[in-house]
Predict the 3D structure of the following.
Amino acid sequence: MKLINQYKKNVPLTPEELEQISEQLIVAGLDDAQKKEWSKKLVEDHGIYRPSDKQLKKRSLRLLQIAAGAALFIAILLCLPRKEKNLSLHALLKEQLQADAFPHISSRKGEAKMDEWREKFVQAYASDDFKGAIALGEQIAQMGPATIDDHFFLGLSYFYDGQMDKAIALFLKIEQLAESNERFKLENRWFLSLAYLQTEASTEAKPLLEYIARNQGWKSQDAAALLHQISKENQ
């Protein structure tokens, strides 16, 4: 480039420098000619048009502007305050009561070794036929010693049928059985707390909900939400 600039300014050059600059000019000319020939071939044979450097710069700037705008839009959305779910205790309780029925453990695991009465009970319960399940569950209790499963799902049948007093009585019986058998302990306390709240016995429900919230597992967040609302409405 230095020799070419000297050549342009009519600075005297040696024969060797003239020979060197001639080679550079020939190569540059060939490169430029080849570029033009290839551009023409791409347009004629393939319909491919290569934009100029100025057009490429404009296109890149436009893409950067679009990307920056999209990033700004996302950032604004992330910064917008989110509406927190703030329901009354009654609304929270109604939401839980309208949830799908707790699945029967036998129908969930597909156990087949059940007597005829228990099988019918499972079918009625799984079909949301809670009145039929209650009749069958009470019959099972009269036939012989009932298992903790029998008590729990009969209690749930009373619960879903709206017979909260009978449900509470059975859930309390399971609380006593939990001293030697912790099966359904967490689930039993959850539904017992809901039954208490449904009968407006929030004082009895509170320690049960606190236990579930501390457990940091199944229904812990729902229990915490109910506790928060109980505290808020008792102020």
About this structure: Residues 4 and 150 are 100 Å apart (CA to CA).
